[in-house]
Amino acid sequence: MEELHQENEQLTNQLKSSGNEKDEEIARLRKQLSEVEKSRKVSGILCDALSEEAVTLKRHLAETVAMCQKLMRTLETKQDLASVKVTSTQLDAVSLVLFLCMWLL
């Protein structure tokens, strides 16, 4: 009879400790979930900021392309009018830069 009583106590203690372990595991998983959600929010904010920065950089690049095109037209006009010696290599280099800038847009 005493053996049954001891065995019953052991089983009861095991059930209690299992409950504590389950509670601890649930608490750990909740904390981990909270950290994952926080990390996702931060990632979203950073992604939005990078997207805005990309738009700004593209706008600046487009403005730079427009300015380079204007300067190239001015240079070609001055070359025609004033017979400025600009080599075709220099014009090709400017054209290449313009092409690369427009490709990046």
Descriptive account of the structure:
With 105 residues, the chain is mostly helical. It has helices spanning 2-82, 88-104. Helix 1 runs antiparallel to helix 2. It is rod-shaped, with a radius of gyration of 36 Å.
Features:
105 residues; mainly alpha; 2 helices; 0% strand; rod-shaped
Main sheet: strands, sense, barrel: none
The secondary-structure element order is HH
Q: Helix proportion of residues, in percent?
A: over 70%
Q: What is the total domain count?
A: 1
Strand content: under 5%
Which regions are unreliable across 5 or more consecutive residues at pLDDT < 50? none
Cα shape: rod-shaped
Supply the helix-strand structural class.
mainly alpha
**Radius of gyration using CA atoms only:** 36 Å
A few lines on this structure:
The chain has 105 residues and is mostly helical.
Present the secondary structure layout.
Blueprint: H1 2-82, H2 88-104
Helix pairs in contact: 1-2
